[in-house]
Amino acid sequence: MQIDILTLFPAMFEGPLTESILKRAQEKGLLDIQFHDIRDYTTDKHRTVDDTPYGGGGGMVMMPEPLVQAVEQVRGADDRTPVILLTPQGRVFTQRVAQELAAHPRLILVCGRYEGVDERIRQSVITDEISIGDYVLTGGELPAMVIIDAVARLIPGVLGARWAAEEDSHAMGLLEYPHYTRPPEFREMAVPDVLLSGDHEAVEAWRRREAIRRTWQRRPDLLLTADLSEDEGWFLAELAERDAPMLG
Q1: CA-wise closest residue to 40 among 13, 61, 9
Q2: Tell me, which fold does domain 185-247 have in CATH?
């Protein structure tokens, strides 16, 4: 997968995208990340990318000429690649959206700044808008890093274990089950016996139930759309009945 990033601050990406899994993905040729400084597409000697908004008000707005020029040159004749503006006004980024984006061979991420972008940029070259949550950041660079990390994990071959991405929290519609490693006992807290049993079927059943339990305790809203078997539905009903006095 190729990801093109249009930004005013390419240096912000040097640490997060050059370590750990993302670094290895690029070294393996599974992920190709290209940076494009929006200021390189300006035409004045001051490399101006923003101006005051018409109608007054505080802050500055990114001008249409440099950013539209940047997108058009980076995109080239390819009109199928999503051009995504990172903005608080976009649709909320979820695991399902990450899976959707991972299906594309190429993405173009546009990092907004200041008070936002001229509306004609949206009308000219933007095909999608994404927000990573209901809060405001100083720019689109951090959201771009979040999206790249989440999407890259879904590229075949990026993660070592073939099932790792499928069992992540949210990937299966539930929060992930608890994890344990050595030692088998720590400060009088023992690893559940089933995980030491060697019975893989029992382990999988335990993990599934614990994922349901944790989701019920922390994010019950996710259970409204979770794909549960009849037995799992009864298990959830037992959890709800048990916790009813506490919820009351």
Answers
A1: 9
A2: Trp Operon Repressor; Chain A (1.10.1270)
